[in-house]
Amino acid sequence: MDWTKLDWNALARLRDGFLSGNAAHGPYWTALSDLANYDLTYGERIGWKWDAVLGELLTRGWAPPTGLPILDWGCGSGIAGRRVLRAFGASNFSTLHAWDHSPLACDFSIEAAQREFPELKAEHYAPGKPVGLLVLSHVLNELTPATRDELLAVANEADAVLWVEPGTHAVSRDLALLRDQLRERFDLIAPCTHANNCPLIDVENARHWCHFFAPAPSGIYADPNWVRFGQQAGVDLRSLPYSFLVLEKKNLRPNVAPLPTDASRIIGRPRVHKAHIDLLACDNTGLNDLKLFKRTDPALHKQLDRKPPLPLYHWQRESEKITSIKPLFP
Ligand SMILES: C[S@@+](CC[C@H](N)C(=O)[O-])C[C@H]1O[C@@H](n2cnc3c(N)ncnc32)[C@H](O)[C@@H]1O
Q1: pLDDT tens digits, one per residue of 136-152
Q2: Atom 8 of ligand 1, residue of closest alpha carbon
Q3: Which of 117, 168, 251, 328 has an alpha carbon 20 to 30 Å from 207's alpha carbon atom?
Q4: Ligand 1 atom closest to the CA of 29, numbered from 1
Q5: Measured between alpha carbons, how far is 222 from 227 in angstroms, rounded to an integer?
Q6: What is the CA(115)–ligand 1 centre distance, in A?
Q7: Residue 224: how many other CB atoms lie within 10 Å
Q8: Is the pLDDT of residue 275 over 80?
Q9: Residue of 77, 108, 139 with the most ligand 1 atoms within 8 Å of its CB, for mutation
Q10: Atom 26 of ligand 1 has which residue's CA nearest to it?
Q11: What's the predicted TM-score (pTM) here?
Q12: CA distances to 54, 89, 90, 249 from 83, in Å
């Protein structure tokens, strides 16, 4: 598939399904070509979000245990599983298992993975096979209560979970609920800096959601194909909001990429003003609206405006005012 062969009508049909909520009413892929159209466009855009998440994990020195199978559940075109294989190296996994309630999606994912990673075994998942690394991407708002329970049961079998969802208020808060259900069995690798109850669930935090923004590849805005896609899909190509969750089974390995207990994470986009920055942060004291004055760290003020580091920090503060600050991964 390339842009010259792209079927814009098929994409429009898929978009209508995603927007109307019909995607939650059963399989909607009608042909392998639907998946190819999706993979080049919607899927690739989702891939950029995965690149941001995987980039954070690699920077922090976290990788899943080697030798596990990967299960890409709700695989669609399989973009998420392939991004994970690319990031950590296909030779570090035993097999790629694809699962989707659409058999077409499983077939497409397996074929695409075999093309990109010919040495890797790729096959359909069947219940009872070991789960290993569970990869989930943009599935949550298509699940019924029953399939959500099925998925939770699968997640509880996993050694580690990599989960990326859209950065919308509703989906991010839904993911936070699942985070609190899964944390009994799993260590929270990201985005959380602590294992307390997720503070989003507190009534006073109902307006907030835990989301981040991935950078789009440079040149996208000048590419007429991507511009047309953005217009047709109704998405802003400059804005790639996502929410995510990375879990590793407790006691699987000692001290895997732990964050300091007093680490803080900036949520969403800090609002950069001339003399200060307003930001929302999460740490073991909960969610806090804070201010960082430019004079506290002029270089970081500039960096946050242009090319922010991973949003993980160690800081001191007096009430809402940050008095000293150090990025954990400059
Ligand atoms: C928006 S697509 C995302 C596909 C892919 N994970 C990605 O990130 O590009 C959602 C996928 O979940 C699948 N799906 C929805 N409900 C499912 C269920 N109950 N069991 C398995 N797959 C499901 C759909 O068929 C579709 O392929």
Answers
A1: 999 999 999 999 999 99
A2: 137
A3: 328
A4: 25
A5: 7
A6: 21
A7: 8
A8: yes
A9: 139
A10: 76
A11: 0.96
A12: 8, 10, 10, 22
Residue 102 CA, closest ligand 1 atom number: 25
Q: Residue 149 corresponds to which tokens in the numbers above?
A: 């329970």
Q: For residue 252, what is the DSSP state?
A: S
C-alpha 76/C-alpha 235 separation (Å) is: 20
Query: Where are the extended beta strands (E) located within the chain?
Result: 68-73, 93-99, 121-124, 133-137, 160-166, 186-190, 212-213, 241-249, 264-272, 276-283, 286-293, 312-318, 321-327
Q: How do strand 241-249 and strand 321-327 relate by DSSP bridges? A: unpaired
Q: Do the Cβ atoms of 133 and 107 come closer than 8 Å?
A: no
CA neighbours within 13 Å on the CB side: how many for 166? Answer: 14
Res. 67 pLDDT band, cuts 50 70 90: very high
Pocket-testing residue among 72, 100, 163, ligand 1, by greatest number of atoms within 8 A of Cβ:
100
Q: How far apart are CA 243 and CA 210, in angstroms?
A: 6
Ligand 1 surroundings by CB, under 6 angstroms: 27, 43, 46, 74-77, 79-80, 100-102, 105, 137-139, 142-143, 147
